[in-house]
């Protein structure tokens, strides 16, 4: 059976990661070789830190140190009547970033992020839904992984010991239940989630070890929910790369993107395709032709898959492809997420307020009604219920698609 290899080097890397992780986890703050930027969003707090300075949007004038010629500046206000994207109040502190978004429909949308933030959109307003803690103190962790199979089955996770589930938003609130640590090792962070139903859910993140009765100590980078009458049980999936994205066209056809330089120094933009054989998956590397970290993945079908990442990198795996196609990008900003409704309607979002749209022929920039501010906010997640109902989340902001194409940077 073909799998990603697990060398001694990878095992030692996993050990070092596990030993260094605190009980409460947030996103990694180290700059990676080959990456164009720091892994940590400007408003995502590390574990054990205070709220710090307000890094959100303001209504003030442009900072003197940020000239209008700087592409990160917002030199003049753009109204929602002019822009394709309009900010919607979230009741979330501008100290925090929203890093993930998912929904079951236009009146049932969830977003999560730093500061333990989880909020819900009911069609008219965003409402905070606090996560429970044994201490009673609010969580400060960043929740990158968010997914649901429907309105009554939603999952959010920051790490293997911080996985929460709810049966949905009912009577103005949501009741979250925390699950026990999903791995044998010390807790490790989770960055991605994907599934097809209540009994088909997987999380991906940093590698960790697990003990196998037949093979001894092995390295895994996913946990997969399996059906059990005793409650939720997780099974490991072997792999040494840090996973940043998961997407599949069916329970038997799954893609992952990750950073595998801990095992192979050149394998920064790893892309792997998994196909089911019996009760297991065979994972095959597919050359991404990328020397940077890939951070978002989505497809309109099994034969039309997109991946985006650092330095504006865009890749496409089309029909009958054997490797990823290099797609010309209109930006050099890091792209964090990609999502769409069809092969000719795809969106990508990233740093410095970057919003891109694919119409089936080319990628073009799209404009949001940002306040005049020294810096455009980084954008981390995108999801929609259809072509005219799309949300973007990021640093201190949630944007909703207006359907307009006007405006300029």
Structural summary, described in words:
The protein is mostly beta strands and 409 residues long. 3% of the residues lie in helices and 44% in strands. The protein has a single domain, classed as YVTN repeat-like/Quinoprotein amine dehydrogenase (Methylamine Dehydrogenase, Chain H, 7 Propeller), CATH 2.130.10.10. It has one helix and 28 strands. It has a four-stranded antiparallel sheet, with no helix packed on it. The longest helix has 13 residues, at 8-20. It is globular, with a radius of gyration of 20 Å. It starts with 7 loop residues before the first helix and ends in an 8-residue tail after the last strand.
